[in-house]
C-alpha cells in the first residue's frame, strides 16, 4: 500500500513538471535548437564556412553573437534585420545575429571570461582595450575600421522635466541649490564616464584649466546626485519612471528615446554649452571569429554599419552618423555644439587611471574628509 | 569521516560508504572546490593588499550598511514572525490555510521580481511612496528601502522555525503556570518565551545571514550610493566589472567567512537544543 | 536553513481551553496585526505585480508572455529546474541517510557545509564558477582547447542553480530522518532485508512528504534564482536568458508592463508550486490519521 502511494506521488510531481515543460515546448517548435544550441553552434558554423566554402550550394546558415552595451538595444534590433537581408541578398547565406546587452564594463568582462562574442560594440574604447591583454583582440583594433572604428557618435545631453521648471541650461546650473542630478555610477557604467568627463571638461575650460577647481566642481556635482544606478538604463528608469531628480545626464540617443517612448509632453532635452564627443567603438573579436570561422561575416557586419543604410538606421535611432550626407539629412535632429574629445584627456587609459580606478579622483570625491 | 569506520561496524544498516561517498563527492564538486577558488584567487594578493582592499572606507561602509539593514530587518521579522507564527498555530480564523501558504511566497518569488515590485510601491510616485513623501519619509533609495526588501526576503525563515516549536508545545506546562496563578503575559515571558528562544535565535540568524548576502531584490531599491546605500554584494559586482578579480574575491572571502561562522553558530545552537531535549 | 522545516498546521494546537489562551479581544488584535503585517510586507508586492502587469491591458500582457524570447526564457528556466532539482533530491537523500543513520565525527561541520550555499551571497555563487571555468579561470584554458563551453552557456546556468539549491532537500530530510531514528530500518536489516529494499520499503515511505516539500522548495528557488545566474548567463537573448533575467531586460527596455507580465508568470508558477505543497500537506494529514490506525 505504502509503496503504491509513493509511486503515485512521484508520478504526480513528474507530470506536474512535464506539463509545465510541455507548455513551454508546444508554443515554439524550434525550441531544441535554442536550448542546446550554444554547444553545437561553433562546430556547425565551422563546418559551414571553413570546410564547405568552395561548394556551389548556398552556405550553411551562420550565427553571430554581438555583445553590446545597454542603450543600443533598439539600434541593433533594427540593424540586425537590415544586415541579415543584405547578407542574404549578397551571398545567399542566412545569418542570425544574437544579441547580448548589459553595462559596457560587465559585457567586456563576460567576453574576457569566455562569452563567445564574434563582435563587440561597446560604449568606450577602454572596454575594448581590456580585451587586448587576454589575446582576444589585436592591439591595433582601432585602425581596422574607419573613423577610429566608431561608425556612429553620440554626446551627453541633459534630459529635464517638461518646461524645465528648474531652469537648467548648462553644467553650472546642475550645482544650484535644490537641483537633483541623476547619473549612473562612473565605476560601473560606460556612459557615466562620458558624463563625468564632460562635466570635468566644462569645469576645466571655465576655470582656465585649474584641476583643483574642476575636482571641486565635480565633487559638488555628485553631491547633487541622490541615486547612483549601476547602468545607463537603470538611471533612465529612475528618472523617467520613478520620477526622481530634476535632470538626467544621458546619452543623446537615450534622451531622445525616452522622449519618444514615454511621451514628448513629459520631458525636454537641453543641450549644454559644451559636451563631449562620445565614440562608441566596434571590433571583431579576432580569437572567437577565427575559431568559429565567422571572420568574413563578422567583418562585413561591422563594415555595413558604415554603409548608407547602416548610417540611416543609426540616425533613426538617434546616433550621430559619421557619413556627412546622411548627417546633413538629419541635421535638424542633432544640434551642433562644442565637443571636447577623449584625446583632450590623453586617451582612455590615462583618463581611466586618473579618474575611475580604485583610489582615483572619483573615489576621492566620495571619501569623507577629502 | 575516517574515525567513523570503527563505529560503522556497530551499525547494522548498509549504505554508509555509498551515501557518504556520494555526499562528499557531490558537495566537493558543486560547492567546495568552486568556493576554494575564492581562497586561491585571493592568495594572489599580498596580505597588505588584501587588508587595503577590505578596509577601504567604501568597503567598510558597505559592510556596515549590509550589516545594519540585515539586523534591522531580522529584528522586525523576529517580532512579527513570532506574532504570525503564534496566530497561525494557536488561533482559528477564516482563511488561515491561505495565510499559511502566503508565508512561503517571498521564498518562492524570484528576488528580482520582489525588487522591482517593491521599488514600484515605495518610489516617490508609487502607492505607498506617494503617501509617505509628504511626511518627508523616503523609502526607496534609502537604507529604509533596503531594510524593507530584506524584511520581505526574511519573513519565512522566522515563521517557519518558530512554528513547529510552538506546535509541539505541551499544554501541560502552560496549564501548570496557570494553576500557579500566573497571568497570561507572565506565562508567556516566563514559560513560553524561554522555550521559543532557541528557535527564535535560529530564525533570526537565518534571516540575517540571508539578508547580508541578498542581491537581486536590493539592487533595484537601494540606489547604490557609495557610503550610503551601497551593499557589499554590489561592491563585488562593481569590482568584477572593473576586471578587478582579486579585489572582488577579497571582499567575497570576508563575506564567506562571516556566513560560515553564522551558520556554524546556528548549527551549534540547534545541536545543543537537540541534546537538551534528548536529555530531558 | 532549518527554517524550511515542514510545519503541518494541525488542528490540535488551536483547540485550547479558555484558561490557556488569550481573551477574544487580544486574540483578534493579534490576528489583525499579523494580517496587516503580512498584507503590507507580502501581499501588497504581489498584488502590485499583477496590477502593473495589466496596466496596459490584456493585449500587452498576452503579447509579453507569448513573445518568443519570453517563451525561450520560460523553457530554459523549466529545463534548468528539471536538471537541478532531481540531482539535488538524490544528493539530499544520500546526505540525509549518511548524516541521520550513522554516527561519525564532524557531523555538525558537514551539515554546516551543506548549508553554506544558502548563506553565500548569490553574486559569489556565480563568481566562483567564473573563477573556475571562465576563460581566465583555473580550468579555462583546458576547456577552451577542447571547445567546451561551461559559463555563459547552459551548463554554467545549471551549475549555478544547483549550487543555490543544494541545501533544500537535504535540510528538509535531515531533521525528519533524525527524528524517525533507525529502529525500523535496523529491524528490517536484522530480518535480512537488502540495502535498497530497506530504502524503498521503509525509509522512502517514511520521508516521502518531507522529500516532496524539499523538492518543491528547491524547484521554486531554482526557477527564481537571479543573482547567481545573472553572473554566469552572458545574457544572450533567446538563448541564455532565464525568466528572471528576461524580466530585468524588459524592465530596462521601458517595457514595464511587459516585465511585470512576465513576473506575474513567475508569481503564478510560485503560487502553483505552493498549492501543490498545500495539497500534499492536506493529503498527509489524512494519511497521518490513516496510519495511526495501522
UniProtKB/TrEMBL annotation, chain A:
Gene Ontology CC, one term: periplasmic space
Keyword Endoplasmic reticulum attached: no
Region (Disordered): 28-63
UniProt-listed Gene3D superfamilies: Periplasmic binding protein-like II (3.40.190.10)
Domain of life: Bacteria
UniProt keywords, alphabetically: Periplasm, Signal, Transport
A Pfam family that the UniProt record links to this protein: SBP_bac_11
Biological process according to GO: sulfate transmembrane transport
Chief location of this protein within or outside the cell: periplasm
Family to which the UniProt record says this protein belongs: Belongs to the prokaryotic sulfate-binding protein family.
Protein name: Sulfate-binding protein
Organism this protein belongs to: Paenibacillus catalpae
TrEMBL record, chain B:
Regions crossing the membrane: 12-40, 60-89, 101-123, 135-159, 188-209, 247-266
Keywords: Membrane, Sulfate transport, Transmembrane, Transmembrane helix, Transport
Protein name: Sulfate transport system permease protein CysT
Role, per record: Part of the ABC transporter complex (TC 3.A.1.6.1) involved in sulfate/thiosulfate import. Part of the ABC transporter complex CysAWTP (TC 3.A.1.6.1) involved in sulfate/thiosulfate import. Probably responsible for the translocation of the substrate across the membrane.
Residue ranges constituting the ABC transmembrane type-1 domain according to the UniProt record: 63-266
GO CC entries: plasma membrane
InterPro entries, A to Z: CysT_permease, MetI-like, MetI-like_sf, Sulph_transpt2
Family assignment from sequence similarity: Belongs to the binding-protein-dependent transport system permease family. CysTW subfamily.
Assembly: The complex is composed of two ATP-binding proteins (CysA), two transmembrane proteins (CysT and CysW) and a solute-binding protein (CysP).
UniProt-annotated location(s): Membrane
UniProt-recorded Gene Ontology molecular function terms: ABC-type sulfate transporter activity
Source taxon at top rank: Bacteria
Topology with respect to the bilayer: Multi-pass membrane protein
Species name: Paenibacillus catalpae
Main location: membrane
UniProtKB/TrEMBL annotation, chain C:
Transmembrane stretches, start-end: 28-51, 76-97, 109-130, 150-170, 256-276
InterPro entries: CysW_permease (IPR011866), MetI-like (IPR000515), MetI-like_sf (IPR035906), Sulph_transpt2 (IPR005667)
Its biological purpose: Part of the ABC transporter complex CysAWTP (TC 3.A.1.6.1) involved in sulfate/thiosulfate import. Probably responsible for the translocation of the substrate across the membrane.
Cited SUPFAM superfamilies: MetI-like
Protein species of origin: Paenibacillus catalpae
Subunit structure as annotated in this protein's UniProt entry: The complex is composed of two ATP-binding proteins (CysA), two transmembrane proteins (CysT and CysW) and a solute-binding protein (CysP).
Record keyword Transport present: yes
Domain ABC transmembrane type-1: 74-277
Domain of life: Bacteria
Pfam families on file: BPD_transp_1
Gene3D superfamilies the record matches: MetI-like (1.10.3720.10)
GO terms of molecular function: ABC-type sulfate transporter activity
Keywords assigned by UniProt, alphabetized: Cell inner membrane, Cell membrane, Membrane, Sulfate transport, Transmembrane, Transmembrane helix, Transport
Subcellular localization, as worded in the UniProt entry: Cell inner membrane
Its membrane topology: Multi-pass membrane protein
Protein name: Sulfate transport system permease protein CysW
Cellular component per GO, a single term: plasma membrane
Amino acid at each position: 500500500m505504502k509503496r503504491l502511494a509513493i509511486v503515485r506521488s512521484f508520478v504526480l510531481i513528474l507530470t506536474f513538471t512535464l506539463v509545465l515543460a510541455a507548455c513551454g515546448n508546444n508554443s515554439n517548435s524550434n525550441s531544441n535548437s535554442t536550448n542546446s544550441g550554444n554547444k553545437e553552434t561553433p562546430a556547425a558554423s565551422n563546418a559551414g564556412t571553413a570546410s564547405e566554402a568552395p561548394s556551389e550550394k548556398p552556405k550553411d546558415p551562420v550565427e553571430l553573437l554581438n555583445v553590446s552595451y545597454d542603450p543600443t538595444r533598439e539600434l541593433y534590433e533594427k540593424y540586425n534585420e537590415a544586415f541579415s537581408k543584405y547578407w542574404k541578398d549578397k551571398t545567399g547565406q542566412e545569418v542570425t545575429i544574437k544579441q547580448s546587452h548589459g553595462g559596457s564594463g560587465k559585457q567586456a568582462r563576460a567576453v574576457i571570461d569566455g562569452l563567445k562574442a564574434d563582435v563587440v560594440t561597446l560604449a568606450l574604447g577602454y572596454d575594448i582595450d581590456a580585451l587586448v591583454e587576454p589575446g582576444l583582440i589585436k592591439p591595433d583594433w582601432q585602425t581596422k575600421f574607419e573613423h577610429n572604428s566608431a561608425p556612429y557618435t553620440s554626446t551627453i545631453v541633459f534630459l529635464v522635466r517638461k518646461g524645465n521648471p528648474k531652469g537648467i541650461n548648462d553644467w553650472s546650473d546642475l550645482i544650484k541649490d535644490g537641483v537633483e542630478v541623476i547619473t549612473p555610477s562612473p565605476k560601473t557604467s560606460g556612459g557615466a564616464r562620458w558624463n563625468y568627463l564632460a562635466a570635468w571638461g566644462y569645469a576645466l575650460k571655465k576655470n582656465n584649466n585649474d584641476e583643483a577647481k574642476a575636482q571641486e566642481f565635480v565633487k559638488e556635482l555628485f553631491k547633487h546626485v541622490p541615486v547612483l544606478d549601476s547602468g545607463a538604463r537603470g538611471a533612465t528608469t529612475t528618472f523617467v519612471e520613478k520620477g526622481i531628480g530634476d535632470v538626467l545626464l544621458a546619452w543623446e540617443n537615450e534622451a531622445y528615446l525616452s522622449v519618444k517612448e514615454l511621451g514628448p509632453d513629459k520631458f525636454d532635452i537641453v543641450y549644454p554649452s559644451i559636451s563631449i564627443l562620445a565614440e562608441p567603438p566596434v571590433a571583431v573579436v579576432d580569437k572567437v571569429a577565427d575559431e568559429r570561422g565567422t571572420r568574413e561575416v563578422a567583418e562585413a557586419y561591422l563594415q555595413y554599419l558604415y554603409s548608407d543604410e547602416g548610417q540611416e538606421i543609426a540616425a533613426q535611432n538617434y546616433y550621430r552618423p559619421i557619413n556627412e550626407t546622411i548627417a546633413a539629412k538629419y541635421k535638424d535632429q542633432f544640434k551642433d555644439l562644442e565637443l571636447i574629445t577623449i584625446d583632450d584627456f590623453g586617451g582612455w587609459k590615462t583618463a581611466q587611471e586618473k579618474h575611475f580606478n580604485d583610489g582615483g579622483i572619483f573615489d576621492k570625491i566620495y571619501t569623507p574628509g577629502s | 569521516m575516517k574515525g567513523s569506520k570503527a563505529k560503522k561496524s556497530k551499525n547494522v544498516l548498509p549504505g554508509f560508504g555509498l551515501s557518504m561517498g556520494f555526499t562528499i563527492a557531490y558537495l566537493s564538486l558543486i560547492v567546495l572546490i568552486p568556493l576554494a577558488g575564492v581562497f586561491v584567487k585571493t592568495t594572489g594578493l599580498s596580505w597588505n593588499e588584501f587588508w587595503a582592499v577590505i578596509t577601504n572606507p567604501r568597503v567598510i561602509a558597505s559592510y556596515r550598511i549590509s550589516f545594519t539593514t540585515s539586523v534591522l530587518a531580522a529584528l522586525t521579522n523576529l517580532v512579527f514572525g513570532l506574532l504570525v507564527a503564534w496566530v497561525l498555530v494557536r488561533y482559528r480564523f477564516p482563511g488561515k490555510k491561505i495565510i499559511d501558504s502566503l508565508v512561503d511566497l517571498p521564498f518562492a518569488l524570484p528576488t528580482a521580481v520582489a525588487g522591482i515590485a517593491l521599488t514600484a510601491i515605495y518610489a516617490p510616485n508609487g502607492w505607498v511612496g506617494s503617501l509617505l513623501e509628504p511626511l518627508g519619509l523616503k523609502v526607496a533609495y534609502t537604507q529604509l528601502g533596503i531594510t524593507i526588501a530584506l524584511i520581505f526576503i526574511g519573513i519565512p525563515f522566522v515563521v517557519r522555525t518558530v512554528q513547529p516549536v510552538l506546535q509541539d508545545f505541551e499544554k501541560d506546562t502552560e496549564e501548570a503556570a496557570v494553576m500557579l496563578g500566573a497571568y497570561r503575559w507572565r506565562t508567556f515571558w516566563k514559560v513560553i518565551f524561554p522555550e521559543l528562544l532557541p528557535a527564535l535565535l535560529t530564525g533570526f540568524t537565518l534571516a540575517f545571514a540571508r539578508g547580508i548576502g541578498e542581491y537581486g531584490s536590493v539592487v533595484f531599491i537601494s540606489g547604490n550610493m557609495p557610503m550610503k546605500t551601497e551593499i557589499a554584494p554590489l561592491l563585488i559586482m562593481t569590482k568584477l566589472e572593473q576586471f578587478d578579480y582579486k579585489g572582488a574575491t577579497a571582499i567575497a572571502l570576508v563575506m564567506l567567512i562571516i556566513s560560515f561562522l553564522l551558520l556554524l553558530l546556528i548549527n551549534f545552537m540547534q545541536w545543543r537544543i537537540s541534546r537538551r531535549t534528548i536529555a530531558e | 536553513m532549518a527554517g524550511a522545516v515542514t510545519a503541518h498546521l494541525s488542528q490540535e494546537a488551536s483547540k485550547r481551553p479558555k484558561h490557556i489562551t488569550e481573551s477574544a479581544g487580544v486574540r483578534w488584535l493579534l490576528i489583525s496585526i499579523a494580517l496587516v503585517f503580512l498584507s503590507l510586507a507580502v501581499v501588497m508586492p504581489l498584488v502590485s505585480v499583477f496590477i502593473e502587469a495589466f496596466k496596459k491591458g490584456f493585449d500587452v500582457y498576452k503579447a509579453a508572455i507569448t513573445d518568443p524570447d519570453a517563451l525561450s526564457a520560460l523553457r530554459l528556466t523549466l529545463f534548468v529546474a528539471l536538471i537541478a532539482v532531481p540531482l539535488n533530491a538524490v544528493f539530499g537523500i544520500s546526505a540525509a541517510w549518511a548524516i541521520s543513520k550513522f554516527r561519525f565525527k564532524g557531523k555538525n561541520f558537514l551539515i554546516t557545509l551543506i548549508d553554506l550555499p544558502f548563506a553565500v551571497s548569490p553574486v559569489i555563487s556565480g563568481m566562483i564558477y567564473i573563477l573556475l571555468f571562465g576563460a581566465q579561470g583555473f580550468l579555462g584554458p583546458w576547456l577552451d582547447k577542447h571547445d567546451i563551453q561551461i559559463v555563459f552557456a547552459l551548463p554554467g546556468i545549471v551549475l549555478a542553480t544547483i549550487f543555490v539549491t543544494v541545501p533544500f532537500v537535504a535540510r528538509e530530510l535531515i531533521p525528519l530522518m533524525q527524528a524517525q531514528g533507525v529502529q525500523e530500518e535496523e529491524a528490517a536489516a536484522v530480518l535480512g532485508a537488502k540495502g535498497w529494499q530497506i530504502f524503498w520499503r521503509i525509509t522512502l515511505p517514511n520521508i516521502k512528504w518531507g522529500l516532496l516539500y524539499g523538492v518543491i522548495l528547491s524547484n521554486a528557488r531554482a526557477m527564481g534564482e537571479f543573482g547567481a545566474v545573472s553572473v554566469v548567463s552572458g545574457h544572450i537573448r533567446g538563448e541564455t536568458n532565464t525568466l528572471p533575467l528576461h524580466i530585468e531586460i524588459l524592465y530596462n527596455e521601458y517595457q514595464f508592463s511587459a516585465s511585470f507580465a512576465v513576473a506575474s508568470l513567475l508569481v503564478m508558477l510560485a503560487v502553483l508550486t505552493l498549492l501543490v505543497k498545500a495539497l500534499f500537506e492536506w493529503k498527509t494529514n489524512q494519511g497521518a490519521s490513516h496510519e495511526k490506525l495501522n
